[in-house]
Amino acid sequence: MKIFKPLLLAMAFAASMPFAISAHAQAMDHSKMGGMSTPGAPASMSEGEVRKVDKEAKKITLKHGDIKNLDMPGMTMVFQVKDAALLDKVKAGDKVMFTAEKADGAIVVTDLVPAR
Questions:
Q1: Dihedral angle at the C-alpha atoms of 66, 109, 90, 33, nearest 10 degrees?
Q2: 98 CB neighbour count, 10 Å cutoff
Q3: Which is more confident, 96 or 31?
Q4: How far apart are CA 53 and CA 84, in angstroms?
Q5: What does the pLDDT look like over 39-86, one tens digit per residue?
Q6: Do the Cβ atoms of 87 and 58 come closer than 8 Å?
Q7: How far apart are CA 59 and CA 84, in angstroms?
Q8: Does residue 87 surpass a pLDDT of 70?
Q9: What is the 8-class DSSP label of residue 83?
Q10: Can you list the positions of beta strands (E) in the chain?
């Protein structure tokens, strides 16, 4: 019985470790960890991947992470762009950093740069 209690305690501790590690990882601010970024890009920019570019319609489809300034979770969606010239910088498959804002009832990409 003297061996059983410490063994049981050690097993309980070991079994709880994955949950503690998971909780710690979720609580970390990953924006400061140097993931996909562009040197000199403002912290307000969001990460994304270009899925489609439609220059004629001035639209871009992005698979993006959270857009904090709009309180929007990550998803894939079509955005209007403020300036069609932004679309000349990117193509489908490119990783990008972008800024999106609400304007005239739509969400518009106002800045777009390839990520490095």
A1: -30
A2: 24
A3: 96
A4: 10
A5: 555 667 999 999 999 999 999 999 999 999 999 999 999 999 999 999
A6: yes
A7: 8
A8: yes
A9: -
A10: 46-54, 59-64, 75-81, 95-103, 106-114
**pTM here?**
0.64
DSSP state of 87: G
Plot region of 58 (φ>0 → left; ψ -120 to 50 → alpha; else → beta): left
pLDDT for 33: 40
Q: pLDDT tens digits, residue range 99-112?
A: 999 988 899 999 99
Phi, psi of 92, rounded to the nearest 5 degrees: -55, 135
Tokens at residue 12, please?
């309980």
Q: What pLDDT, on the 0 to 100 scale, is given for residue 70?
A: 93
- CB of 75 closer than 8 Å to CB of 38: no
What class, spelled out in words, does domain 46-114 have in CATH?
mainly beta
Which residues are CB-neighbours of 23 under 8 A, at least 6 positions away? none
Whole-angstrom distance, CA of residue 115 vs CA of residue 98: 9
Q: Where are the domains of the chain?
A: 46-114
Whole-angstrom distance, CA of residue 37 vs CA of residue 95:
9
What H or E segment, with its residue span, contains residue 60? Answer: strand 59-64
